Amino acid sequence: MKILHLSDTHNCHHRLRELPEADVAVHSGDFCMVGSEREALDFMNWFCELPYKHKIFICGNHDDCLYGANIDGLDSNVHYLCNSGVEIDGINFYGVPMFMGDCVTDRQSRNYAAIPNDTDVLITHSPAYGILDFDDGINYGSEEILNRINYLPHLKAHLFGHIHARHGVTRQNGIIFSNGAVMSSDYTDLSSPGVIIL
User: What residue segments make up the domains of the chain, in order of their start?
Assistant: First the structure.
């Protein structure tokens, strides 16, 4: 399975041209800049029109307008994951958003703890601690995600974003880690999105 991984497009998704072929397109959050409903609707319309068989997205910390939202009207092949999962061609995808209302309480910890053991592809906005999360002399990743990954025996890939300076892919202990943040750290340029193969 080929997965196109995008993250942190920050309302510049229309600037992405000639996206590579893949079976599934995944956006791991921060499609908005200021978090308005108009931005979110524009992104969802664009995302639904992409020519991929399956499309999955979660929310990041810039997408707070969708906190608690019940999103209706998506095409049957477009999946909004909010502490939920979907199975595609025998692969279990599970998505955990990064809403600030959860991060300032213990709800985010409970969301990470609830990631199912049979998850094959984990989608979060935050990286795991120490993995493509270093910027300005700080590791910004989540220790809770890192700890939970150790108890996911089927995990093949972890897709995330959030830390713009660490766009790229690495592999550790047989797991693919992809930071799909395509927006540059100074919000002036877009990197080319990557494709990972399971």
Answer: 2-197
Provide CATH code, domain 2-197.
3.60.21.10
Instruction: State the residue for tokens 């590579």.
Output: 20
Q: Write out the DSSP string of 134-157.
A: EETTEE-SBHHHHHHHTT-TT--E
Mean pLDDT by 10 residues, the chain (198 residues): 97 94 98 95 96 97 92 92 97 96 90 97 98 95 96 97 96 97 91 93
Six-digit token string for 110:
């409970």
The encoded tokens of residue 121 equal 């592809």
Specify the DSSP element, H or E, that contains 111.
helix 107-113
Residue 149, H or E segment: helix 143-149
Residues in the chain: 198
Looking at residue 105, its pLDDT comes to 87
